[in-house]
Design goal:
By secondary structure, the protein is an alpha/beta fold. Helices cover about 40% and strands about 20% of the residues. The strands form 3 sheets. The chain has a 5-stranded parallel beta sheet, with helices on both faces. It has a 5-stranded antiparallel beta sheet with strand order 10-9-8-13-14, with helices on one face. Strands 6-7-12-11 form a 4-stranded antiparallel beta sheet, with no helix packed on it. Strand 11 and strand 12 form a beta hairpin. Helix 7 packs across helix 8. It starts with 5 loop residues before the first strand and ends with a helix.
């Protein structure tokens, strides 16, 4: 075993990373530096500081990365209308590249020998973190406790925590807490009864959204303004990226928007059931597609739609820092130069409905062409005859045989 004097741990303060912190101290007899990224998870940030101090950590990094997270990771991803396997808005996946980047920077600042994370050997996050580490520092030493220890269940983790005086929050009377991940884009839930895909999630699990049944009986209209593909104003008021997503989460949560229950295909090969709340993300996705519908050239839009599943898979699998993702991002960003204008959205009992959109400078809509009324000769309908015959030529030849 390589001698480790100092390790930087991605530390949430939850059950897994609290146990890992103590385990690293005991197993490697090393100094642990904790890094907690505030990317919008809220109440768990300061308790993480207190818990790190309680466990004897001297170097504690807690950094507010909310603006960077939304500006440099969430918004670029949403420019591509990114959805994994038709449903998942990649709330956990998109946070890992930022955490990996800052963790490597802290390791270099503190002259640490290694970095560590709390991802299990079964999941996607181990891949996402470590691909990021190696892309940013090729010779970094990585400690992945879940691939080394024998604490292979949440019950064993809780027993370890109890034996070592580590407090465990959010413990249910009937067993271990949900495995949860939260940031400004989403909150996720795994484990417990969710491991049976036939069982409906308990209502008390959801934290950000009311049920659609309990949402207001009156619809609410909002208006989003876009500049080069990014939402920059809400109801006429300019917003920073983090503030925009925060406010959309509040609006969406109020109206029961953004709940998702899915079974996804993990990168390692197994299927996993998880539940997600992404209220602001769902609103952004619908609004962005709406403004693109009038500002984006048809073939550019179709090309983006063709590439999106591959782009989504790159992010899901942890390849944010890969050269192919960067090349795709350059193309996506170039497509957004003229994606400017506003979208009006109706929020009602779990639904996000686009009810209006326009662009004063970049709309490709030509009402004089598509109108059902007299177009004044703007479009000669006789032109369609040759267009159709030529497009049908190969089928007409085949039919003639």
């Amino acid at each position: 075993m390589k001698e480790i004097n100092k390790v930087v741990l991605a530390f949430s303060g939850g059950l897994d990373t609290s146990v890992i912190l103590k385990w690293l101290q005991d197993k490697y007899q090393c100094q642990v530096v904790t890094f907690t990224a505030d990317i919008g998870q809220g109440e768990e940030v300061e308790p993480a500081r207190a818990k790190a101090k309680q466990l004897g950590v001297k170097e504690i990094y807690i950094e507010d990365l909310r603006e960077e997270f939304v500006r440099d990771y969430v918004f670029p991803m949403f420019r591509a209308n990114t959805v994994y396997e038709g449903e998942y808005l990649l709330g956990t996946s998109i946070a890992r590249p930022l955490i990996s980047k800052r963790q490597i920077e802290i390791a270099q600042e503190t002259k640490a020998d290694a970095v560590s994370h709390g991802a299990t050997g079964k999941g996607n996050d181990q891949v996402r973190f470590e691909l990021g580490y190696y892309a940013l520092q090729s010779d970094i030493c990585v400690i992945a406790p879940w691939r080394e220890w024998d604490l292979n269940s949440r019950e064993k983790l809780m027993k370890y925590a109890e034996d070592h005086g580590i407090p465990v929050e959010m413990k249910k009377k009937t067993g271990s807490p949900y495995s949860m991940d939260a940031n400004l884009l989403h909150i996720s839930y795994e484990g417990r009864s969710l491991e049976d895909p036939s069982e409906e999630a308990e209502e008390s699990m959801w934290r950000w959204t009311v049920s659609p049944e309990e949402a207001p009986d009156e619809a609410e209209y909002i208006e989003l303004e876009f500049l080069q593909g990014d939402a920059v104003a809400l109801n006429g008021k300019k917003q920073s990226p983090a503030d925009m997503l925060t406010k959309l989460n509040q609006l969406g949560g109020k109206h029961g928007i953004g709940r998702l229950d899915l079974v996804e295909n993990r990168f390692v090969g197994m299927k996993s059931r998880g539940c997600y709340e992404t209220p602001g993300g769902m609103i952004l996705l619908r609004a962005h597609r709406a403004i693109e519908s009038i500002t984006l050239d048809r073939e550019v839009g179709h090309l983006k739609d063709d590439l999106m599943p591959r782009y989504a898979t790159l992010i899901y699998n942890g390849y944010w820092w890969s050269p192919e993702r960067k090349v795709m991002q350059a193309m996506i960003d170039a497509s957004q130069e003229c994606v400017n204008g506003w979208v009006r959205i109706k929020l009602y009992k779990g639904n996000v409905m686009v009810v209006g959109r326009d662009s004063a400078t970049d709309s490709l809509m030509a009402p004089e062409m598509s109108t059902f009324e007299d177009d004044g000769g703007a479009y000669d309908q006789q032109d369609a005859s040759g267009f159709i015959k030529l497009n049908a030529l190969r089928m007409r030849i085949a039919a003639g045989r």
